[in-house]
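User: Before I run my own analysis I want an independent prediction to cross-check against. Here's the chain; please return only the structure tokens and, at the end, one sentence I can use as a sanity check.
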Amino acid sequence: MNTTHGRRIRHSVLAVPVAAVLAAGSACAGIGSSAQNASGAGADAQNAAAIAGPRSDQWDDLHRAATTESPAEYQGPTQPVTAPKNLKVAVITCLSILSGCVSPATGAEQAAKKLGWQVRVLDGGGTPDKQNAQMLNALSWGAKIILNIAIDPNAVQDGLRAAKRAGVPVGAGSNGLDSPNPPITPTGSNLGYAFDVGPDYAALGKKAAQWVQADSEGKANIVVYSDKEFPSVLALQKGLLDELKKCKDCTVQPLRYFTGNQVAQVLPQSVVSYLRSNPDVDYVFIPYDPAAAAVVPAIAQAGMGDKVRLISVLGSQENLNFVRESRVQVADAAYDNRYMGYAMLDQTSRLLTKKPLAEPHGENMPFVVLDKDNVPESGSDWHASFDYPGTFDGLWK
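Assistant: Structure tokens:
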């Protein structure tokens, strides 16, 4: 791995390496300091300072900002709500082989046990036809609310119209359509969701950019990939690019776009081809983990794993394993998907009892950048450090 950007070695010979740097493999921070003798102490110190450059803690500060969870304590709703009794809730995942689609449903199931609600999780299958069909199945089952996870409302208009005719509201999560993100209303006469629970994607994008700056010590040459199909990707992308503009010595390549149906075959080879044509690029940003999971093996097989550092978004367990192993992907901008499940049920209680929805509608979902310093142990999703399940349970009594 090229260390000219300071990914492994801190420039200041006088600095004591912090624990986070040691954990990331920077145990070489003290290399370059010289033993001084009494007669030449002043000259040696000057020479050492000239080699090392001025000491700066800015990279450690940026790394700390990126890898510290936001918010650091519970900032969700505080207004109690009397939850409905004996409620049937249908949760439809975008695609149940993706952990990012399933984890919020698992959180909703966990929260429902405290409420005495019945939750049925249905696999959306990754296609609009299957997602619409599952919404109809939910209505046949007798659901009193449907919660769609990472499903574009424009793609499930048949299901939304059927739910409207049945008087069943439809909420959602993980789409980036609602506050704290810029609200996006349906196009034309299309129906939308009653609420959409998600993190502040722009703020998460800012954290990702802070991490890249810290890791490269302000000299990253980064290519950013994007997918216009998802409002959450575009919101995060804005925060990422706005923050990268502050890095005067970073190089940000022109945006590269792909679509979801290109993830398996087209995207991996496209990324490898781009990297071969642009050998100075040393950072790759992929906007969501399933796409990154396809790109990582392609970069490794192309023999570029020691030259390129990849960061993605979501916190899927497969990608967190890449981070643990430093296998091309070295960081993941993650949010607490279990919290999303709790927040969706909280907003459901408020909606069905005709109370105002909690503001912002994302209920200040926690998020963080994970790297080798703070990645959870294998087999675990990332969860905020504070006890939000207990807080939510208290609000619903």
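Sanity check: The CA atoms of residues 351 and 357 lie 6 Å apart.
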